Protein 1
Amino acid sequence: MFTVSRSRRVSRGYSFGLVVATAALLPAGAAAQQSPAVGLGAGFTSYDLAGTGTVFVVNGVLDLPLSPFLVFQPGVAYFRYDPGYDASQASLYPELSLQLQIPSSIVNPYLGAGAGWALSVEGRSLRDNMKVTLHAAVGVRAWIVNRWGAQIEARLRSIDPFAGNSFDITGGVHYQLRARQ
């Protein structure tokens, strides 16, 4: 005779409850994920490069949904910082990200990771100024009215992997390029 222990029954009950709760929180329209969207944001970045400090940062992104759960996001960030030995430096950070999100019709929390480049936009040749970057991000996109939404994100960026870093906290607006289904 086959018997199931009480702990396994409780565990299965919790698993089933989690699946039901998740399904209940996802509206029927979640499968028809949002269209591509463009976003502009601003905030502050705390950096540890040749010098340390906190400065204003701006960014722009393009959200390209690959599935209801996965978003490909090319983007770029810009900030000026004080390297500690020279006049301030302007830096551009073109990046590519993959974001795993929990889809819904209004609020989409996500985790992301990706890579890109750090480019100094002043002085020397581009080849001398290009450094590889890696990043991790956590955030929320909320679709507020019609095609308009807002985004809040925290992004940790490693520059010239592990030689320098920045930590961005940004907020901004998003606009969907096509009306949602």
Protein 2
Amino acid sequence: MAGARLALEPCALVLVGEGRDVVVQDGATLVSEGEPGRPVRFDAEGDAPPPGAWRGVEVRRRANPETRFVWTHLDHAGAPAAERGDPPAGLRVFAPSLRASHLAVASSGGWGVALQEAGAFSDDAGPLTVRGAREGAVTVADVSRVSTLPLGDYRGNARDEVRVELRDAVLTASARWRDLGVRYRVPASRRLRVEGADAPALTLDPGVTVAFDDDAALEVGWRAPGALVAVGDGPDARVSLVAAGEGARPRWVGVLFGPLAVASTSRLRWARIEGAGRPSGAFLPHCAPAGPELDPDRAMVTFASIEARNVIRDTLFVAGPTAGVAVLWAGDREGAPEDVTAPSHGNEFDTNSIGCPQSWARVGGACPVRPSCARRP
């Protein structure tokens, strides 16, 4: 469809042959505008086609920005493309601002939607429904595009999740991840980094769950300023940062606030940190708690040489490192950090799985206090 324009009216039915796809190429425009009760439908040829009977719809980067899908259904797509490495999906988006309203993707043989390269939805997109996908609801290549996903219904798939591939793993502009009713997932050994010249903040709405596969981590403000705002709305609407897998814990590294993290805007409140405490590889200087021997490289939340006050409140620490700590205060600072175990802070620690609630930072190059694990609540 390079340079062409195709307009589809309500009740239009487009049948696509096995292994074929619909590609909106350079300068082309596809306007698919159905109405309530009279949607436009893309489907596979034949009676009772299986999931993945055709490849799907692909909107390329230089497609005309007037391309849009309104009250449109994409059914039984998601067959893999043999000559490309893109993930199979009912809808593959490379365009930077795709317009979509009441779009439904059903019975995909792969992912429901794949946002590739700079692919993203427009600010006014939604609602989006993804159901019956054999891989999962959505996969996103660039972390900066995750926040463009519209509200909708992403449940009823093999994996009800938004997979954040992190091919571009640095969030350099502020973003908000909304509660889509399914979890966001960070792949194994990947580092989701929040930092940039404009001090970006990643805001996680109440109810959001971000699941981390083995050895993944969330890094904030290590090479440039950055902030994390993970604030729930009470005990029944927490922000959850958890291990993706089951079994032995901990599975992921944790949240690492670097020396350039913006402590004045970062918040962990009404949050849940679960399954963190794998080795970070940072080996930061700190003052070990008195009592059992603990590994200084195993912590669920780490603060490296920043003056962080009032950051952690009303937060649960669950299934952490038995040979580590929940909160690691590292580096050298002017005054002792605040005590996150103080009752006024409202934090709770799973004492059966966490070696100690916190370590202590150095003050003036020395360890003036060695907190005891006996102070655990």
Protein 3
Amino acid sequence: MTIPTVNLNNPSPPQSTHAASKTMSSETTPSENMVVLSDSALDWATTVCQPIPNEDEQWHTFLRALAVVGFDQWLNDGALVLAGSYAQSSPPAPGVNFHLNGQRLCIVAMGSLSDDRLQVPNPTDGGPAPQLYILVEVQEEVGQVQILAGLPAQQLQQLPVVSDPWVEIPVSLFTLSPEQILVTLSAMQPETVTAVTPGASSFPSPLQRLQTRIINTGQWINSQLDDISEQLAWALLPPRTVGALRDGSPLRNTLDEILQELANHGTVLPSYARGVGGPVQVGDVTCQLQAWAWPLTASEDEPPEWSLLLLLGPADGATLPVGTRLIVSDQNGVIALASLSNGADGAYLYTQVVGTQGEAFVVKVDLPDGESATLPPFGYEGPIG
């Protein structure tokens, strides 16, 4: 199929309409993930692909261009306003074709929902590889695209290694929902390049050295403080105490409020839950963290699970900066994110996750000025239950 010609001397980048930022909801409806492409977006995709001589390649590149510009429009107009970038003077590549916050994305165009496999450039074939794949359905006949799902690049490791320039990806591997894509993208940080400047120490900080070991929450259940928590200057909290890290802490009266909110959603902190609390230094800001853990009751045919409740607040007499984020990740990527917004009630953030034995969670605190701190992984070693 030949792309209709548009009389434009140079491919002009499409103009996006920025909607007001909205609060991310717990559910994302299909209509929120459907993008009606603007006329300028359609014109750009058409024009930028015109120089491609092969008709079949031109058509597939055109669909990819619609997917890329539609994804960019979705970010600008969606639940989180995130600024990405893509090449606007040349056709989008089949591999890395979108950048956001220093991360490499591959926007994959899907023309038919009946397809069960897709082809992408082999990520081991040299050059920068994508870190996240985004699947986008293109409905070119009506000028629409729909954001379908995401796939972290590390999950491709389960596929057989091939030497071909292209690899096939089962569509079933794309398991991140559009909402999870937004959470993952908002938590992405630029890749860190370690460089030793003159006069600077090349030795890792104490926190960096601890990150290779696990905070064993299983010891808390026995009223024992694990070694890592002790080195972080944290302390055991009395059972079911109303969050007093020390007298006057802004967290003192917030635990009951959080427990009540969790109870309203069916989660009750049991009497055998145990927690620790202490400082977390992020740049020049000292935060206070509480972490509560407890085993969950499991049936005989299910693996035992444990729960982790995290509460982050400011130091005495201070407040958390607006934009502070509490991020929790597992081996597959970000699974929970809490962010302090303007007008938010209370001066704290909290989140809860559930894992199985042997599963660990990495907790990161981000400040709006770019400073961040990543804690050693939280795990549960020893028998559960």
Protein 4
Amino acid sequence: DPNSLELIDKTSAYSNTQVLGDYHLDIAGRHSLNIQGGIQTEWDQYHHFLTIFSGLSDNDNPVVHPEDRLNTTRAEQLHTFGGYASFGKVHYDYDNRLLLSAGFLSDFRSIRTVKALLPSVSAGWVLSKEEWFPRNTGVTLLKLRASWGRMSGVSRAPSGVPPTDYELEPGKMAEIVGMTNFGTDAVLLEGRLQLAAEYFSKYNNNTRFLSQLPGEFGNAPRVSSGKMRSWGWEISGNYTDKAGEMHYHLGGHLSDSQNLVTAYAGQRTVSNGRLRVLEGFPVNSLWGFQTDGYLQSEAEVAEAPYFNSRITVGDVKYVDRDGNKKLDFGWGSLEEPGDLFYLGTDQPRYTFGINGGASWKGFDFSFFFRA
């Protein structure tokens, strides 16, 4: 409307208060104990008020009448986020060879009273520090490590996103992410070669996915009804050395990662194409018809499942999974998918990367490749 006037009033306020404590104790020069703890409070509010006056007679000198409800539109948004958390951690170190730590995070968010108690533990053992470890083998450091912990997936709504999209249903917990790691680190060749290997397993409870509702209901809300598991491993290495005045380094890594949706409110509907979430399958699973070469003769054309009246010798041959002589989606369920097959996922499983560089008399060069 060219003859209109918009008045916008935006205000925001944010506060973050932290109280931290730290205590350190050394005993007999070999035992070290460190205790940390604290509390944090956070509050954030965003207020947006919009008024539109339309049907003005003069744009250069507008005259508005707030009482004119017919030509006045008002809108208001109020986003509020707040909560507090307490945390603590105890770390024990024995002679730089045995490392133990335990901690917790108690998280409370005012949005629908989300609460979470999140513990964590970790341990490390430096084998190369032990007296029985063989010397003069070129191994400078050999360490084993393990950890387990839980994290909360609660987050506030980004700017411009209604907070209801991020709120939880009454009685629902926040998304809880649990992680387990096992790894080893090694340093060889007088520190020139560093190696690391790690295995991880992660689970997500109360993952937020779109609810399964008929299209007549409009935009489906997100609900905390999902569970997902991820696992994999990674190995990496880096070599650093010098030749004369030139210093150089070369490194790389290789990893394997998989995931599986273990629960999603009983969602077992399949269709042709990519399915974002499907119970019992990875995220972004791909479904479609499976090929079986090409039609080689008229006899094969006659026996081929029907999908149009123009199929002939030389066309792609599809597998008739359900044996009903036609290509279809069945009842669109995992139990009766028709001729649909699970073809994999678009999520990459294996990734690798290479990096390196060199420097000489103030000149340096580096590169990085990942796939």
